[in-house]
Specification:
17% strand; homotetramer; 341 residues; four-stranded antiparallel beta sheet; Aspartate Aminotransferase, domain 2; globular; alpha/beta; Aspartate Aminotransferase, domain 1; 14 helices
Chain lengths: 341, 341, 341, 341
C-alpha cells in the first residue's frame, strides 16, 4: 500500500539528516542564535535578494500562522481568508485562540481577489464589528491552485491602498514556485507581500518553516512572540541546519520540482482518460473526480483522501506527491489507472 | 573554549540520530499517530508501571507548560509557583498569554511546601481575586534541587485535600531521578502528581518532552489543545522515534546519570577547596560561589553563566553538565580549578 | 423627527427611576450582594417557577454573552450561531477575543434547527478542527422572528443527545414572550435551555440583563467570571433595583406587550397596503420592503434603519418599537403611510 | 450600624438622579453618541484645559483598567504595578485574562519611584522574559497616599526616556486632587501621564469612569476595544448625563472635598489620642492601628474593614468616607472614639 495521502509521510531528505549528523557534537548557542541558523538566514536572504527582511525559523505551519498573525494584529483587528483557507477550518481555532476573528470569503479556486476584500471592508464600517486588517492567502493553496504575479500585485496594491497587511502561508511555496504555470520568483515576494513563510516540513525537512517579515513595522520584538508561544526551540540549530542544507544550493527547488513532476505525470494520465478535476491545480496536489467504483479499486493499493462527494456515483479524491514520492510508485499508479479507467 | 552554560549545546545522542536515519524513508501517519509514537508511548507506560495515563509528545518545555496549564484551568483559575519557577520569569509570560495569572511564592531552595500553599489559599478567599488551582513545581528545580518522595507526598496530600492540581515540570526529571540523593521512582509519579513531563531536550533528544497526564479528568480532548497551540507536528514521528530510542532500554537514565556524574566530579573538587554553594543541588546544575578573580580566569577557557552577585568580591556561577559533557573537559576544568583556587 | 431606529433611545421607565430615588441614600453592600439584588433574584425565580437556577445581573448584552460563553467553554470548544446572530457580526469579535471561534450556519428566518446543528457536527470530526459545544440562539431573533416551544424542544433534545450547551440570548425575550404567536412561558425555559438571559436594557431598564443559569455544571464560580471581565459593578444595587421593579408585578411583560402592540399596528397597516416583509417577525421589530421613493418621504419625519437593498427600486427598512414608543407617533406614522403608499 | 466600609454604599448624588429624570424621555443616539455624552466630554476637556485628549465613559474601574491596558499593549508587553496595586490582587486576574503579565514591585507607601522601575527594566533584558511597557499607578492609592506633582514628574521623565506608558488609575482621583497635601491640578495630568481616568463611581455617580487618553498613539480605534470588551452601553447617555452633572460646575470637587473633610475629622481625633496609622494617607481612606478590644467595641456601632493584623494585640482597620458620609455619623464616631480610647 503506497500512500499519496500527504507530503509529510516520510522523514527528511537524506542530505538533511547527514547535515544533522555531521554537526551533531559541535557545541553552539541555544534558541536560534547558533551559527547554522545565522548562516541559513544569510543564505535565504541571498536567494530572496535583499538584506532588508527578518527571518525566523519556526517548527510548523499552524504555529507560524498563529505567532505571525497574533503579533501583527491589535486586539480588535481581524484576518480575512478564503473559505478553504487552512487557518479557517484546519487549525482548531488557533487564530481565534489568540483573540482574533477570521472573516471568511468564498473566493474563487481557493484564491482571494481585491473585489472579495472590498466586500469585506464594505461590510465592516464601524466599531460594532471587528476591523479587517490582515489578508491571509496561501500559495500553492489548500486546493492546489497558485497565485500569479499579477494576481499578487493586484492584492498588494489593494492592501496598500487600504492599510491592510498581506500575509502568505507558504507551507507549499516550493511547489507553487516550481509549478509549470508559475511566473513568480522568490525574490518578487518582498515587493508583493508584507510577510510570508517558506515551508520546509512539506518540502524535505523534518520540521521547520522560515518566516520572512518584509514590512519594517512588523519586525519589532518578534522573537518575544516566538518565545511566548512556546516556539523558540532550545536546540534551534535543528531548524537552522535543515534550512542551511535546503538553501546551500538548489535542493529546496529540486525537491519541489520532483513533487510537481510526479503529480504532473498522474494528472497527464488522467487527462488522457478524460477525467475532470475539482480544481485547477498545477502543483503537487491534484483532485480528480472519479467514479466510486474506480476509487474502491484504487484503495486496494494506494492510500489517499476522499475529498468530497460530487454526485451519487462519483467523488473527488486528492493525490499528493512530495520530494519523497518514488517514480516507480507513480508509474505503478499510472499503470493501474490505465487498467481501471 | 568549552561550554558548561547549559544542557542543550549539542545535538542528539548518536543512537537517536541513527534511529531517525533507519526509519527515514518509511511512510507513516502524520500528527503523532505513527507506529513509532504509539510504540514509544507503550514503552514509557511500561516504565511508569501503569496503562492508566495518557502520554503526548510535545516539542519543548515552554510549549508543554503552556498547553498543559491552559488546558487544565478554567479562565478564573491561577497557577502557584515558587519565585524561581521557570514559568514565572523565563517564559515571556507564556502562561499569562493564555489568560492565567501565576501567583508567586518565595519557597525554600527552589521548592514549595504545603505551608506555602496554605498561605496562598488564605490570601485568595473570594471572587475579587483569582482562584488558586494548579501547583507548578519542577524537579530537578531551576536551581538544581530535587523533591524527595516525602516532600512530594506532602504536596500531593495537601493538593488532594484542597482540590488543587499538582503539575511537575520535568525538563530535568532525568537528572532528578538519577541524583544520588533521590529516593523517587518514575513509577511513583502517577500516585503523587496529576500530570508531569519527562524532558527529552535536555537529556539527549533533539527536541521533545513527553507529557504524562495521570488524573482522568485532565485527559479529555487533550490533542485539541496541542493542535490549537500549533504543537501537533505533521511529522510527529520525529518525537516518537526519539523517545522510542530513549526508553527502548535504559538510555534515558544512563544519559542523566552521566550528566550527574560529571557535575558530581566538579562539585567534589570545589568542596575539597572549601568553596560554598548558592543552593543545595545534587543534580546536573551546580552554583558555586567564587571570587570574581577566579571567575575571570575560568572565563578564559570555559563558558558558563554568572548567576548572581553575592558580595562585592564574589559571585555565584552556574555549571551545567549534560549527557554530552566530555570526561576529559571535566578533568581539565578540575585541573584548572585546582590550579586557580 | 420621531425615531423608530431602536429600542434604547430613551432612558428608563419612570417607575424604575422612582425606585432608584427612593432607595438612593440607604447604605447597602457592594458588588451585587445588596438586599435589592437578592430580592430581585428571588422574584425572578418565582416567575420562572424554580429555585434551582442561578441568576446574575450584568450591564449589557454583549457583556453577558461574552462572560457566559467564555465561562461555559473550554479553550478548544466553539459556539454555533445562525449567520444573523448578534455575536457573529455585531459584537466586534467579543467572543473570539475570549479565544473561541463561532461557527456560522445559514439557518432559516434567523433561527437554527437540529439539522443545521447536525451539519456542523458532521463537519467537525476531530482535533484538527474546533469542537462545536455551545449553541447560541436569540429570541426574539435579530430579524424579529421567535422560537416556538416545539422548535426549542427539538433543539434541546438534539443538544442533550450530543452534549451541546443550549444558550439563549434574550435581549428581546420580553418581546418574544409577549408575541401573539408565542406559545412559550418564562417557566418553560429552564427545561429547554441550559442558560438564557432576560433583557432589561431593551425593555424599560437603564441598563441590565438577568442571566439565568439552569444547568448545574455551568453554575460554579460564576461570579469570578463576572468580576474578571470587569462586569461586577461596585454599586450592583443599580441593577438589582431595576429588576426588582420590573418583576415586582407584571411591569416587564406590560412593557414588552406595549412594544409589540405598537409594532403590530404598523404591520397591520402595511399588510393592508399589500406591503411584503423581509422576514416573518411577530415581535417589536418589523422589516417591510418599500419603494425607495416611499422610504425617502418617510425619512423626512421618521428615523429608522435601511436594512438592506432588495432590488434596484426597493429596500427593506427596519421599524423598532419599544416600551417608550408613543401611541400618537405610531398613529401619525400610520397616517403618513396611508397617504404615501 | 453606620458603614465606613467603602465609598460605594449609597446610590448617587441627588443632582445626578434629577438629571436622569429630567432627560429621561428625550430620544437620543445610542452607544455614547448622544448629546449628553458629547457635552460632558467637552466640559471635562475644558476642566483639563486641552482639546487634545480623547475621553471615553466606561462603567467601572476594573473594566476601564482592562480595556485601556489591553488596548495599549502588544501581546508580549507587561504592566508594572506596586504590590498593593488594585490590578494585582483585587481584579480577579482581569489583566492577565487579556494576556498580559503584571510585574509586582514593593514600592513605598503604595507608590512607585523611578528606581523601582529601573530595577524592573534591569531584570527584564531580553525575549525570554516579558517586556515591561506600561506603568500602572493609582492616586489616591489603594492605601490612601497620593502622588505629589514632583513625584509624577519624575515618573513621567523616566517613562519618556525608557519608552514606557504611564497610566493612572483615578478611581479616587477626586479625593487625591482635593487632599490638603495635594499640589497637583487636573490640568497638569495631560503633561504628566499618557492616560488616566476620573472616577465617578466612588465620587457621587451611580456608575461611570471617564478615561482620558492623552498620548496620540494610544487613541486610535479605542471605541472598538470598549465594544469588544462588552462595555459600550446601548444607553450610553446614562454615563454622559452623570458626568455632565458632575462637571457642569464644581460638584465633582465638592463631593471629594466633603469625603476628605470627613476623613480628616476622624484622623484628627485619632492623632489627638496618639493613635498611629499603617500608612500616610491624606485622602478619604485612613488606616489607624487600634487595640483589638477597641475594634470590637467599635464594631457594635460601625461597619469597617479590618485591614491587617499588626501584632497580637492590635490591628489596622480601614475607615472610608465619601460624598455621602453624614456629618452627624462622623461626630458620633468621634464621640465614641473619645469614650473608648
Amino acid at each position: 500500500m503506497y500512500s499519496f495521502k500527504n507530503d509529510y509521510s516520510e522523514g527528511a531528505h537524506p542530505r538533511i539528516l547527514n547535515a544533522l549528523l555531521e554537526t551533531n557534537m559541535e557545541q553552539d548557542e541555544g534558541y536560534g542564535e547558533d551559527r547554522y541558523s545565522r548562516k541559513a538566514i544569510e543564505l535565504i536572504k541571498g536567494k530572496i535578494g535583499t538584506e532588508d527582511v527578518d527571518i525566523h525559523f519556526i517548527s510548523g505551519g499552524t504555529q507560524t500562522n498563529l505567532i505571525a498573525i497574533s503579533a501583527f494584529l491589535r486586539p480588535h483587528e481581524a484576518a480575512i481568508a478564503v473559505s478553504s483557507g487552512h487557518i479557517l477550518g484546519h487549525e482548531t481555532g488557533a487564530i481565534e485562540a489568540t483573540g482574533h476573528k477570521i472573516l471568511s470569503v468564498v473566493g474563487e479556486n481557493g484564491k482571494l481577489s481585491p473585489s472579495d476584500l472590498q466586500g469585506v471592508l464594505d461590510g465592516h464600517p464601524d466599531e460594532h464589528m471587528v476591523k479587517p486588517k490582515l489578508v491571509y492567502i496561501s500559495s500553492s493553496t489548500e486546493i492546489g491552485s497558485i497565485y500569479s504575479k499579477s494576481e499578487l500585485q493586484n492584492l498588494h496594491d489593494f492592501c496598500q491602498r487600504n492599510q491592510l497587511i498581506l500575509y502568505m502561508d507558504g507551507a507549499r511555496l516550493g511547489s507553487a514556485l516550481c509549478s509549470e504555470e508559475n511566473d513568480l520568483q522568490l525574490s518578487d515576494l518582498p515587493n508583493l507581500v508584507d510577510a510570508f513563510y517558506i515551508g520546509g516540513t512539506k518540502n524535505g525537512a523534518l520540521i521547520g518553516e522560515a518566516l520572512v517579515i518584509c514590512r519594517d513595522s512588523l519586525k519589532e520584538d518578534f522573537r518575544y512572540h516566538i518565545k511566548q508561544k512556546g516556539a523558540l526551540l532550545a536546540k534551534g540549530r535543528l531548524l537552522g541546519i535543515q534550512f542551511l542544507e535546503l538553501f546551500r544550493d538548489n535542493l529546496f527547488f529540486e525537491l519541489a520540482s520532483h513533487a510537481n513532476k510526479m503529480a504532473g505525470r498522474i494528472r497527464e494520465e488522467l487527462v488522457k482518460s478524460n477525467i475532470t478535476f475539482l480544481t485547477h491545480s498545477p502543483s503537487n496536489q491534484i483532485f480528480p473526480i472519479l467514479p466510486n467504483a474506480v476509487i474502491s479499486k484504487l484503495q486496494n493499493n494506494y492510500a489517499f483522501h476522499i475529498w468530497e462527494k460530487v454526485d451519487s456515483d462519483s467523488s473527488a479524491i486528492r493525490f499528493v506527491t512530495s520530494w519523497a514520492t518514488k517514480e516507480e510508485e507513480v508509474t505503478s499508479l499510472i499503470e493501474d489507472l490505465k487498467r481501471i479507467l
